[in-house]
């Protein structure tokens, strides 16, 4: 009978865990040595001062001009190398400083390999015990500046890997020539660690300052947005307080008119009933809008929003207000089936605002409302045209307009990705044509310039946000969401 295998002891499990952790960290350091963390952009490229942006190039260029001939002469005269080989090694050791301005990690690889090859090339020189080895003074100077450029761009784990590799190669080179070594490998290791530490601290300080500045910018934008939302909510409450009182008075007067005025004909009683019902509907809609704006968690009533099926009621109410209005709906509109909710609601609101403008600014003007589809049935066109008033025109209810209605209509059309054309007619009338696509867009088109109509954009945004937010809450979704 076979014996069960013994369970691993705690020390063996700890030993395996230590090996796993060590292997993982070594793998991360190896990846850091071959993976630059920043794009190839110049050092100090974000500095607002021009001379600071050019400083890295000036330092790298000056060091290269000085170090290449100095290193070549040193290797030829003091270490007995061939002049051509010395020149190649000098260029390979110093020229990477120019590359380090934009790509410090690849530049470090080139210079580090060149320095190592140079140390091995002079290993057999007879007078080596009297010279600096394994690193020559020009190599140390250029290498330290290269480490500084590297520290200003790369994160901590990359700097740690570079430092360990530098020290490890220095120890390796010191073994075969220990009797020649003058301690330059130790000096390079210590000074390199100091440079990497200081440069890394400067880089992290700069990153922290940039993140702080970005956070302050975001906070300022959030404060501005919060102020705007608070102002919109305040406007909504003021509108409710002012308008609701008058609408309530209208409702009470219309409901009590048959009892206060005797002998009213049935048509007049029905008219008063219609007025009261319209006033109550307006009050309910205002309360829903105000409820949405009072709290982020508030939701509007889940009642259907008006659409094209309610347009005939708008036209009928306009006719009762004394505006001769005709409605023309193309037969193929009904064949389209249910329209996208945003398009359906926008079409209704556009007709509603256009007819309200006719009542306010052109009383008695004959008006025609047409709803058509495009030839390929991918778009809906809402056309409202009013001509000059027949006979003696009555005085307009409003002699001056703010233009909020047109701005609101443009915003609604923009939200569904359509277009709006408006303008006066040669005979004195006015034409409005809105083209709405029959597919909902994910990203609204670019907003038109604020105040193009001489309006107050802030007030318009408040009113439009009230309506669109209420419509979204009633439908259970947010039409403004991207």
UniProtKB/TrEMBL annotation:
Every Histidine kinase/HSP90-like ATPase domain range: 346-438
Keywords in alphabetical order: ATP-binding, Coiled coil, Kinase, Membrane, Nucleotide-binding, Phosphoprotein, Transferase, Transmembrane, Transmembrane helix, Two-component regulatory system
One MF annotation (Gene Ontology) recorded for this entry: kinase activity
Domain Signal transduction histidine kinase subgroup 3 dimerisation and phosphoacceptor, by residue range, is: 231-296
| Segments of this protein annotated with the region Disordered | 445-482
Q: Does the keyword Coiled coil apply?
A: yes
Renumbered to this chain, the Low complexity biased-composition regions fall at 448-462
Q: What is this protein called?
A: histidine kinase
Which species is this UniProt entry from?
Answer: Streptomyces lonegramiae
């Amino acid at each position: 009978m076979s014996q069960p295998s013994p369970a691993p002891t705690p020390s063996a499990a700890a030993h395996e865990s230590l090996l796993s952790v060590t292997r993982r960290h070594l793998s991360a350091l190896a990846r850091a040595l071959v993976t630059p963390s920043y794009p190839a952009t110049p050092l100090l490229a974000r500095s607002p001062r021009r001379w600071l942006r050019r400083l890295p190039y000036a330092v790298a260029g000056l060091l290269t001009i000085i170090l290449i001939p100095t290193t070549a002469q040193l290797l030829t005269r003091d270490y007995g190398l061939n002049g051509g080989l010395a020149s190649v090694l000098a260029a390979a050791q110093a020229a990477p400083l120019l590359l380090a301005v934009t790509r410090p990690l690849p530049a470090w690889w080139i210079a580090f390999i060149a320095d190592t090859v140079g140390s091995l090339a002079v290993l057999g020189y007879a007078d080596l015990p009297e010279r600096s080895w394994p690193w020559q003074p020009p190599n140390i100077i250029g290498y330290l500046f290269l480490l500084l450029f590297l520290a200003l761009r790369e994160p901590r784990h990359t700097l740690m890997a570079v430092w360990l590799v530098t020290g490890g190669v220095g120890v390796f080179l010191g073994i075969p020539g220990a009797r020649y070594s003058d301690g330059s490998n130790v000096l390079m290791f210590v000074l390199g660690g100091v440079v990497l530490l200081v440069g890394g601290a400067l880089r992290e300080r700069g990153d922290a300052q940039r993140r702080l500045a970005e956070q302050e910018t975001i906070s300022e934008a959030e404060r501005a947005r919060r102020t705007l939302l608070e102002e919109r909510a305040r406007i909504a409450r003021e509108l409710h307080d002012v308008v609701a009182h008058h609408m309530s008075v209208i409702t009470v007067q219309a409901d009590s008119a048959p009892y206060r005025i005797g002998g009213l004909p049935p048509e007049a009683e029905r008219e008063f009933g219609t007025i009261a019902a319209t006033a109550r509907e307006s009050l309910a809609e205002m309360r829903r809008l105000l409820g949405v704006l009072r709290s982020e968690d508030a939701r509007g009533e889940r009642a259907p929003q008006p659409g094209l099926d309610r347009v005939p009621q708008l036209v009928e109410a306009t006719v009762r207000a004394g505006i001769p209005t005709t409605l023309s709906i193309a037969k193929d509109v009904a064949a389209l089936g249910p329209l996208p909710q945003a398009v359906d609601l926008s079409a209704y609101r556009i007709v509603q605002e256009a007819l309200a403008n006719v009542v306010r600014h052109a009383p008695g003007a004959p008006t025609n409302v047409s709803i058509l589809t495009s030839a390929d049935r991918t778009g809906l066109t809402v056309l409202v045209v009013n001509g000059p008033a027949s006979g003696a025109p009555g005085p307009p209810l409003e002699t001056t307009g703010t233009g909020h209605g047109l701005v609101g209509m443009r915003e609604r059309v923009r939200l569904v990705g359509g277009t709006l054309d408006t303008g006066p007619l040669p005979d004195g009338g006015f034409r409005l044509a809105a083209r709405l696509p029959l597919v909902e867009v994910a990203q609204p088109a670019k907003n038109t310039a604020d105040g193009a109509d001489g309006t107050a954009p802030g007030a318009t945004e408040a009113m439009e946000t009230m309506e669109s937010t209420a419509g979204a809450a009633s439908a259970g979704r947010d039409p403004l969401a991207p």
